[in-house]
Queue: 2 jobs
Job 1
Amino acid sequence: MKITVMTSDEQFITLDVDPDESVENVKALLEVETTVSLHQQKLHFNGKELNNSDRLSGVGVKDGDMMMMMLSVASRANNDSLRLNPDGSAVNPSAFQQHIRNDPQSMARLVQADPPMSQAILGDDLDKLQNLLRERHQQRLEYQRKQEEELALMSADPFDVEAQKKIEAAIRQKGIDENWEAALEYNPEAFARVVMLYVDMEVNGIPLKAFVDSGAQSTIISKNCAERCGLLRLLDQRYKGVAVGVGQSEILGRIHVAPIKIGHLFYHCSFTVLDAQNMEFLFGLDMLRKHQCIIDLKENVLRVGGGEVSVPFLQEKDIPSQIHLEENVKQHALGQGPPAESSRAQSKNAGSASRSQNSGNPQRDQSQGPDFEAKVMKLVELGFDRNAVIQALKLFNGNEEQAAGFLFGG
């Protein structure tokens, strides 16, 4: 049979029960529907309070009858302690906190559904708890507003062009949100920072952390690094130009051959020399191909010479922080052909070759003037190294926001 129960806050709950059901079991069903504990309920029928052991048929309850659920005095006191202000904060935060702490079921649900709130309930900072309650209240209001907007759009005039555009945007956003939620569940690694691939190498006997980058056309060494390795004396300036990728850097020339040591074996390598302060050594696609390298991400090693040497990729803790900027110096289009047709013409036409490679209308240098210096000072005040700030601004052609995001992300 069906009975209706009116709660103390004037809600009506319909229950489908057996005529011989006990009052205690009815209270258990109401606990599920109202979250009011069985022991805090008082059921009344025809003005009389029912005992837990009573049977519905025994006290005259029939199909379609109505009962009333009242709260015990202790329960009403608890409800007073749970009252919230219009902004969502608790009227009595200490009592609110204590009440939730004393309810194991509520705490278990909070730990699963809202860990920050459960931590605030278990903590000692009542201001933090109040702020979280206000934040959750705003989230509920925002969710309710969106629901109301969706309902309004669904009932809008189908011939209203603006309404249909809003419906289309809402459907598209819903698809994006669902895709994001699926990514959080099935591909959470996509939201983490990816550690780039570095290995230990020696260049002309000097140990270096080499950035392995199959997306860079050429193997690159900075001017300072080449000088430290004793190779700058071999620089061929006939191969000057401009490297364009994320930002741009000046190509000073090439070092045609020098020994590098990977693992226990030595290999011949050629380098493009860049005037880049924060990029040290980048092992590019040209040498990866030449030495038949295999980037083995399953075993997390770089195999050289078809597998004759294997060296592990470095963990993030082993990568010096000052070379993280190197990860964003990608060189995808470096002109590597000889600047002239013959050796005699090469020497004569080095200047014209350099101008030819620089004829791609590179953007104006942003590193001069008071505006650039103001941007530098603003980012330095945030705690970043001045050289790192300058390099980041150059990488993003003076865009202060992109440079700041890059520095924070590094």
Note: The mean pLDDT is 78.
Job 2
Amino acid sequence: MGSNYNPKLSIVRVENLRLRAFIGFIDWETEKLQDVIISYSFKYDTSMASETDDVKHAVDYKKITKGVIDFVDHKSFHLIEALAEKIYDHIQTSGAPLQDIYVKVEKPNALRFADNVMVQIDGTDRYNTSVIALGSNINSEENFNKALDHLQQFGFIMQRSAFIKTKPLKFEDQPEFLNGAILFHTKKSLSELKMHLKQIEALLGRVRTENKNAPREIDLDVTTYNGFVIDEDVAEFPFLIDFVQQLQPEIKL
């Protein structure tokens, strides 16, 4: 994560997708299909998409919508709460870059004297799960403790790996590193989390140079986020693989 990280977030919104489904506890001999109206939105960093005008850098909202149609239309659900959760999960698992997901499921004429019943899920109310890797070879223990204090100001440390000493791998003429990782719950989006980590690094005195493998007070990296591997370099560091396997064994590397 470079010092020039500056995401450009945009909102994609799909409104009033009208489908038909069986909702409620069903008597199959008398029950009829009912209208279900679905709206959703999400944010993502459109920097590359807008700069290149290339669809491969854009989120495929058509594919997401097709997935919603496939598992909702003419299907059966007891509760619209469960349906809204399934849609939310479907969107979230479409890609790590999707942030601030919002889902609304409406059931028109579900109650006498009421036009509508709806369930809304706002992703900003949900906690996101991340593995954050820490590394330092300048006043390591002190800077680890300071970094952990800063992190607890905007999230919860649920678990931590062992903190271990490792030899420098790419630039060997420097002291050993202290490395570790935490399982972190936060309401911060991926872009916000990355910005907060960069801020903590600066507060603890890290100065970036042309040699990105130089000694450092602290290095904080988002390794996983909501089940996705974020750090493309994770395979180059065996200890990072071990940390993820300890903290999120369900993620396959």
Note: The chain has a mean pLDDT of 91.
